[in-house]
Amino acid sequence: MTRILAHIDAYQKSMKTIVKDVLPEGLELEETIFYPGGGGQPSDSGILKFDGKGIDIRGVKRIGNQLIHLTDDFKPSLGQEVEGEIDWDRRYQLMRTHTALHILCGVIWRDFGVQVTGGNMKPLEARMDFELEKMSTDFVVAVQRAIDIEVDEKRAVTVKFLPREQAFKIPDLIRTKINLLPANIEEVRIVEIEGLDIQADGGTHVYNTFDVGKIVIIGHQSKGRQNKRLRIRVEDV
């Protein structure tokens, strides 16, 4: 299985690695800085360089037990060394957006005790759904005020790995209504916003809530009797 470097250091922008397999769709690598997607966060894009040339990687897709770096260009050979570079501007925007969603989720769990029913993101915009019967303008104003405070608090965002049994001793580790963590995962990646939020999560994040920028709630809507949606935009300060 490809070692995912993005799980260890989200700020790593480039790498050198070896081609493990060549498929019609793309390449499997021994290790990768390309985030493969998951939890509502899309996979990374970027380039691979070899033989003095570069090819575009338009994303990463799981095919069976392989992580395939998708490309329509000519490919390097099996066992060849390649150098990868992610589209850093896009990645960093997604990091800010993902951390913004954790701030939003953390505030709503702390203040209202409400679980997440779904979510999705693209660079600097995202949505999150909650198990709520109603969502008023007053509710949105209160949440906006709370997330503003959490950004200004400059809370540290940290990542650690724990054995599954130890991880699940943490109260409320899974904030989604349905536990999406595969049963075969023996080591759980934990993302913590100090003093606000702690969750099992595989995505990439900034180091501090202040690095997110300004989080603006841009809309809310009903998606069912007990399912309400908030939409956010992330802006530069």
- Classify the beta-strand content into a percent band: 35-45%
Low-confidence stretches: none
What Rg do the Cα atoms give?
19 Å
- Shape, principal axes of CA atoms: elongated
The total of beta strands comes to 16
CATH superfamily of the largest domain: Threonyl-trna Synthetase, Chain A, domain 2
Number of domains: 2
Tally of contiguous helical segments: 3
The N- to C-terminal Cα distance equals 40 Å
Computed structural class: alpha+beta
Order of helices and strands: EEEEEEEEEHEEHEHEEEE
User: In CATH terms, what is the fold-level topology of the largest domain?
Assistant: Threonyl-tRNA Synthetase, Chain A, domain 2
CATH architecture of the largest domain: 2-Layer Sandwich
Mean pLDDT: 93
Q: For this structure, what is the CATH class of the largest domain?
A: Alpha Beta
Strand order, biggest sheet? 6-5-9-2-3-8-7
Biggest sheet statistics: 7 strands, antiparallel
What helical percentage do the residues reach? 10-25%
